[in-house]
Structures are given as C-alpha cells and as structure tokens.
Specification:
alpha+beta, Sortase, Chain: A, eight-stranded mixed beta barrel, 3 helices, disordered N terminus
Length: 261
C-alpha cells in the first residue's frame, strides 16, 4: 500500500495534468474559432462597401426618376408658359402699325422673320375651343420648346406651295399630343397679322408614318414630287412614338378658305 502522501501527490499531479490538457484544448479551439470567424475589421469593410454601393444605386435611381418626372411634367409646365408668352407678344406686335413694302403692288406687308420669332397662331377646333399655340420660325429643339415650328424651307401660311410645321407629341408642352386623332375633314386654322387661313385635313396623320430622313413630305407638291406647286397645302409632322425614335407621323391638308381680318 502506498502512503497517503503519495496518493495525495499523485492526485494533485493528475489534477494538474487534466488542467493543463484543458487549457491547451481551449487555446486550440480558440485558434480554430479565430481562423473560422472573419475579423471585425473585415466585416466592417464589407458593410461599408455595400453601404456605399447601395447609396449610389439609390441616388442614381432617384436621379433617373427625377429626370423622367421633369421631362414628362416639368417641361410641359415651362413650355405652356412659353406658349402663352409668345402668343401674347405676337398679338402685341400685330396691334402695332405695320410697315408696308413700297415695292409691293398690292401693299402686302413685307415680312421680316427672325429665326425663333412667332409668325402665326395655330388653332385646331377638334382639340377644343381653348387650343391655341404659336407657330415659330424654325424647328430647332429650343424653338419647338416654345411652340410649333415652321420649316423655313417651305412656304409661308396661305402661299402657293407647302406650309409645313412640326411639334412635340410628348413633353415640352405637347402641342401635337392629339395629332393622330385628327380625321379627314377636320379643320386647321392658321392666323397671321392680316388673314385667317382655314386648311382642311386630307387624311389622318395616324395613317402615314415616315422616317425622319424622308424629306419628300416637305416638297412644294408632296403628292406630286418634283411638280410645280399649283395650290396651297399644309403638312403637319410629329413623332409617331411616345419615346424618341426616327418615325414621324405626317398629315396633309389643303387650303379651303382665306379671310381678311
């Protein structure tokens, strides 16, 4: 039999051995956990990158929505104000005494047209009693934002030849928003300083679509390309699609009546 002291020493040694083994195993497990678990710095870095990317995407989305809202609502508000201003200014000009062309046998007013100036007023009864927009000289985008544009290479209102105009169907006041609703026989009224011209639609613009490169619709005699014009006609053009495209809807009308003011 071993002395009690020996038993006590062996027990203490056993306890120490077990304690040292537990500590070693614990350290080993901690190292394994450390290797498996990502560092706090790495987690923060990934969260930070995701936050930045998410914020940028959110800002881009809000910006796109804002741009669309401006195009489809904001530009209409500003252009409608411009329509009213151009109409008011044109009527004020008409009220002033006009200079006569000394070389004209019938005393016609000699037109002095500056690009961007309003030259006439357009009314289409089918669009309502309140529909009235200015017709401006030129078809640049900056001009079309203020009214309907006149192709300056074509005839003036009432003249023999082709009086051709263009207007937005969507955005920027949408003066030709309902152009495709016109039918054969609908009236298009053009008012100048001295006269009121009434054109009558020959057909609906929804029935004729051309590419923006097909300029024959602007010819003096669009129904007879190359022929010398013998009557006064009018051509109305607009985008065929609601979004930007090369397609153009075209409607033709003929002069049916001229009245002095």
């Amino acid at each position: 039999m071993l002395p009690a002291a020996s038993l006590g020493q062996e027990a203490c040694g056993l306890v120490r051995s077990r304690h040292n083994g537990s500590v070693a195993q614990s350290l080993k497990d901690d190292r394994a956990d450390t290797e498996r678990a990502p560092s706090a710095q790495g987690v923060r870095r990934r969260v930070s990158v995701l936050t930045v990317v998410g914020t940028l995407l959110l800002v881009a989305g809000v910006g796109c929505l804002g741009w669309v809202a401006w195009q489809y609502f904001g530009t209409n508000i500003t252009s409608e104000k411009a329509f009213q201003q151009e109409t008011t200014q044109l009527r004020e000009v008409w009220e002033r005494p006009a200079k006569q062309d000394a070389g004209s046998a019938d005393g016609e007013i000699a037109p002095t047209v500056i690009p961007g100036d309003a030259i006439a007023l357009l009314r289409i009864p089918a669009f309502g009693e309140d529909y009235e927009v200015p017709i401006l000289s030129g078809t640049d985008l900056s001009i079309l934002n203020r009214g309907v544009g006149h192709y300056t290479s074509t005839a003036l209102p009432g003249e023999i030849g082709n009086f051709a105009v263009a207007g937005h169907r969507v955005t920027h006041g949408e003066p030709f928003k309902r152009l495709l609703e016109l039918n054969k026989g609908d009236k298009v009224i053009v008012e100048t300083r001295d006269r009121i011209y009434t054109y009558v639609m020959d057909g609906s613009p929804r029935n004729l679509t051309v590419q923006d490169t097909e300029t024959w619709v602007l010819d003096p005699s669009p129904h007879e390309p190359g022929a010398e014009p013998t009557k006064a006609v009018m051509t109305l053009t607009t985008c065929q699609d609601l979004f930007h495209s090369p397609d153009r809807s075209v409607g033709f009308a003929h002069l049916a009546k001229t009245a002095d003011k």
